[in-house]
Amino acid sequence: MADLKILQEFNEFRGSPPGTTICPAPLINLHFSQLGVVTACCFNRTHVLGTYPKDSVDTIWNGQAAKELREALAKNDLSKGCEKCMQQIEARDFGGSHAAFYTIFARGMAERQKELGIAPDVDQSVTPMPMKLEFNIHNACNLECIMCHGLASSSIRSRRESQPTMPNPYDDEFVDQLAPYLPHVVEADFMGGEPFLVPAYRQLWERIAEVSPKTKVLILTNGTTVDDKIRALLEKMNCSMHMSIDSDVKETYETIRKNASFEEVMENANYFREMMPPEHPLVYRYCPMRINWREMPQTVRNCNENRTILHFNQLDSPINFSLATLPYDELEEVVAYLDENGPEEPTTDIERANHGNWVEMVARFRGFLEPSNRLNGLIARLDTAAAVVSQYSGGIEGQSKKRLAIIETEGPLTEAVKSFLITRLNVDQGVANEPEIPDHILERFEGRTKGLLAFVDPTPPDMFVRVFLNELLRTYSGVWGVYEPHDFGAFERILAFAPWVAALPDPKGAIRAMVATSPEELYRLFGLVTSTDEAKTRFGADRPIAAIEEPKAIEEPKADEARDDLPTPYRRSPRKETLAAVVAGAMIDKLAGLIIRVADGPRR
Ligand SMILES: C[S@@+](CC[C@H](N)C(=O)[O-])C[C@H]1O[C@@H](n2cnc3c(N)ncnc32)[C@H](O)[C@@H]1O
Ligand code: SF4
């Protein structure tokens, strides 16, 4: 932490004396995520404390990596995977940072442990014990929410991403290894996939109900699959139910939460409201997006009336849904509307909590009217993207790796394509919306373009085309965001298209042209047009890479046109210029120049 003044302000915000660790997460918390990866919190994906089952839960908690992170944070060093918090603290978004959240939580938890009579016999300032456990260990999910992705939802992974099932290492032994910790845990959080569909969660809940029924069990659910067995189990624990409700308007809700029925979910919400002890009122978790921001003032009023706490998730991506990435004038409009239509002065505890959450959420969006915060956001998204890419395709051990055979054989190319596309989408959006993009970001784009083009010569053309276009479908729908994603048949169309490119007189020229084409155009050609004829016409002329200098106008994807009948918030925010028009503009010349330079550079 370089800036002592900001650090001082941060300490004042969270009520901590100078010298307190900047974040106590690794002293109190373990976060279990997919593929056995264990970290100190959900934001820190890169400083891995250990991997189950290679490392036992004990080894992970007491290991070298945990020690190093504790020591770094004690010195206010946020460089070990805590960049997201660093960025938020530097932007003075103290309330949004997990470092503040864990500080306040840790303080409350030591007292709570004593109150509940579950404090361990050891001095926790010398021998820390995990007081909080977070589980994000499985992606089993029945929904395909438009803003979600295959790491969280198995349905998205198989249908929208056409990917093999994620291996899952969490077994009975894992539940046994956790057992000694459970009696002292103040809170255990269960997240996705969809918790009610994850078998290991049911086992853990049975143990918790038996050995520590006072432990607060927070379950974050889509609320679609509540059966009698689940009800019986929930009623034996000290539950705090959080439901993901991104709209209380049926049409918006079902547009966002694909496969869910609004009526059934509302019925389950009523059951949870009745079941909850008064100290844990039902919580709605809401993703503020371009599709639902106008509804938010009414939602907060409905929540106030229905004894429901409203929390706002931070949605940075998909970047076409995020409010934080809107063009300035549109974001100004959103902030002004939210300011004008916020909830009335609160009088009850629930109203006070909702009012506080509202003010914090609006302040966060107001912060994104500041160019430096937006650039930091862009950089953080590019950093996170790199971590997510490797979580998808790297670091997978032994048996798991064999099961992901596709990733193993095509892994490096897949990773290069994904990195390139995520960077391209984010940089394209930045170029369209920001007054200036620093050179280091453009250089990063150049590096990823170079990295990808290095695969063109050594890779069989049909493999390159297939991997590139498959990743394009996944990345465009998952990172950019579309309301009506491609059908499953799109992957089959690509399978037929790839050998056709390989048979062209200059397949590598066609590939380079494809890499230089805007992802939006490619998504329309391969994801939304149900025959490959248009794509064949576009890429069959064996045209050179210079095609990017004379871009043709790009139509908006059909799925969005089809929504013109809907009220404004349902429609995708109109972009001031199509990407093609931007390509012709001054700023993108630089980008196009980079692509052309890289493409024309020395070839192996
Ligand atoms: C991935 S879900 C898993 C739990 C459960 N399936 C559910 O929907 O509540 C966890 C939370 O992430 C939110 N979420 C989904 N996509 C998101 C995104 N792109 N950015 C931020 N939050 C997101 C969901 O709305 C939900 O509140
Ligand atoms: S229900 Fe949760 S995990 Fe499933 S798709 Fe929706 S947000 Fe993702």
Itemize the secondary structure elements and their pairings:
Blueprint: H1 4-14, H2 25-28, E1 29-33, E2 37-39, E3 50-51, H3 57-62, H4 64-74, H5 83-90, H6 98-116, E4 132-136, H7 154-160, H8 172-178, E5 187-190, H9 199-211, E6 216-221, H10 228-234, E7 238-244, H11 250-256, H12 262-275, E8 283-286, H13 296-305, E9 309-312, H14 328-340, H15 349-367, H16 371-393, H17 398-403, H18 405-433, H19 439-453, H20 461-481, H21 489-502, H22 507-516, H23 519-528, H24 533-539, H25 558-561, H26 579-584, H27 586-600
Parallel strand pairs: 1-4, 4-5, 5-6, 6-7, 7-8, 8-9
Antiparallel strand pairs: 1-2, 2-3
Helix pairs in contact: 16-18, 18-19, 18-20, 19-27, 20-21, 20-22, 20-23
Residues 141, 143-145, 148, 152-153, 156, 192-194, 222, 244 line the site of iron/sulfur cluster.
What is this entry, summarized?
The protein has 27 helices and nine strands. The protein has 604 residues and is α/β, with parallel strands linked by helices. The chain has a nine-stranded mixed beta sheet with strand order 3-2-1-4-5-6-7-8-9.
Structure description:
There is one protein chain. This protein is an alpha/beta fold and 604 residues long. 52% of the residues lie in helices and 7% in strands. The protein is built from 27 helices and 9 strands. It has helices at residues 4-14, 25-28, 57-62, 64-74, 83-90, 98-116, 154-160, 172-178, 199-211, 228-234, 250-256, 262-275, 296-305, 328-340, 349-367, 371-393, 398-403, 405-433, 439-453, 461-481, 489-502, 507-516, 519-528, 533-539, 558-561, 579-584, 586-600, and strands at 29-33, 37-39, 50-51, 132-136, 187-190, 216-221, 238-244, 283-286, 309-312. It has a 9-stranded mixed beta sheet with strand order 3-2-1-4-5-6-7-8-9. Strand 5 (187-190), helix 9 and strand 6 (216-221) form a beta-alpha-beta unit. Helix 18 crosses helix 20 (461-481), helix 20 (461-481) runs parallel beside helix 22 and helix 20 packs across helix 23. The longest helix is centred in the C-terminal third of the chain and has 29 residues, at 405-433. The two termini are 43 Å apart. 43% of the residues are buried. Residues 392-408 and 543-604 have low confidence and may be disordered. Iron/sulfur cluster binds next to loops.
